[in-house]
């Protein structure tokens, strides 16, 4: 859950960076279009001035022509820089989109893994409950069976009923004693020829 929260925060940061980069890209493209329009206007003006004969040009037109050439050169330089910046921003946008996709994929994988772990935990809890119920049932049966054995062992003739809680060893010894006595009795009967 902590990893998923961290990834979601990272995803939000990347989405914010992506929006900012797209906004900067749109602003630069708008500025680029405006400068292209200015450049086109200046280029048109320059072409129209070139069509006039050089000797007919007054000195002010020649100066304006030189100034316009310098502005065009500067505008072309700025245009190249802004094209480079737009290209860099497009690369940043592509990289952020790839990171965003990767983060979303990772979040989905983490969520699926968490759901699988949750499902396994629920299955284990269910099995634990079933095991406990089965254990209680077996314990209850064992106690009943043990109680019947004790009752049968100490209710035979000549046996003294236990005064306190009997251990398994004591029950085993009492049963062994009964079996030995029966075997001895059987041997006596056999020796006397009684079936």
UniProtKB/TrEMBL annotation:
Keyword Cytoplasm among record annotations: no
Residues in coiled coil: 4-45, 72-127
Entry-linked Gene3D superfamilies: 1.20.5.170
Keywords: Coiled coil
InterPro entries associated with the record: CC-FHA_domain
Presence of keyword tRNA processing: no
Protein name stated in the entry: CCD27 protein
Species name: Ardeotis kori
Gene expressing this chain: Ccdc27
């Amino acid at each position: 859950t902590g990893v998923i929260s961290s990834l979601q925060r990272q995803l939000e940061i990347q989405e914010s960076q992506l929006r900012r980069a797209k906004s900067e890209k749109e602003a630069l493209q708008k500025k680029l279009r405006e400068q292209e329009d200015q450049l086109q206007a200046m280029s048109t003006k320059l072409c129209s001035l070139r069509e006039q004969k050089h000797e007919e040009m007054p000195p002010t037109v020649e100066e304006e022509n030189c100034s316009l050439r310098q502005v065009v050169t500067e505008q072309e330089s700025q245009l190249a820089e802004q094209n480079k910046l737009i290209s860099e921003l497009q690369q940043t946008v592509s990289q952020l989109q790839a990171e965003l996709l990767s983060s979303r994929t990772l979040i989905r994988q983490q969520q699926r893994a968490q759901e699988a772990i949750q499902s396994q935990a629920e299955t284990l809890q269910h099995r634990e409950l079933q095991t406990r119920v089965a254990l209680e049932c077996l314990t209850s049966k064992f106690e009943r069976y043990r109680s019947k054995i004790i009752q049968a062992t100490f209710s035979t003739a000549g046996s003294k009923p236990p005064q306190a809680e009997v251990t398994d060893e004591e029950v085993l010894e009492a049963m062994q004693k009964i079996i030995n006595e029966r075997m001895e009795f059987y041997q006596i009967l056999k020796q006397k020829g009684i079936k």
